[in-house]
Design brief:
Oligomer: single chain
Helix content: over 70%
Low-confidence stretches: none
Largest sheet: none
Order of helices and strands: HHH
Distance between the termini: 64 Å
Protein name: Membrane protein
Transmembrane segments: 22-45, 65-83, 95-121
Strand content: under 5%
Number of helices: 3
Shape: elongated
Organism: Mycobacterium rhizamassiliense
Keywords: Membrane, Transmembrane, Transmembrane helix
Mean pLDDT: 84
Structural class: mainly alpha
Radius of gyration: 20 Å
Length: 127
Amino acid sequence: MPKADERSRGDRLGQEDGDVRAAIRFAMLSAAGGVGFVIMAALWVSTCPATGVDTVACGAPQRTLLAIGGPAILLAAGLWAFVQTYRVWRREGTWWGWHGAGWFLLTLMIVTVSMSVPAIAGPVLAL
């Protein structure tokens, strides 16, 4: 049983840790990739004419894929962060950074779904 002033083996708070740094870097790059895709898709769809002309990215399948692309990137990244959480935990590293990155990316995925899908694929979904 640990003493009152002892830290547990896995607690490395206040120390330099490559696992936490890697998790933060992964989360920020993945978030930038997913949000960047959503911004690119919104700008691309904004060029669609108001008429029913089916040009590049203005058809129903294209708009749907553009709407779910960014959230799909964030979902894949969040799941990968949870896989990394398990891998780091198994080798007794500092796993909580990857766990936090996973939850951050999944939360960002929910936000991008709620904001981007109605704006990008909204007119298509109403048909």
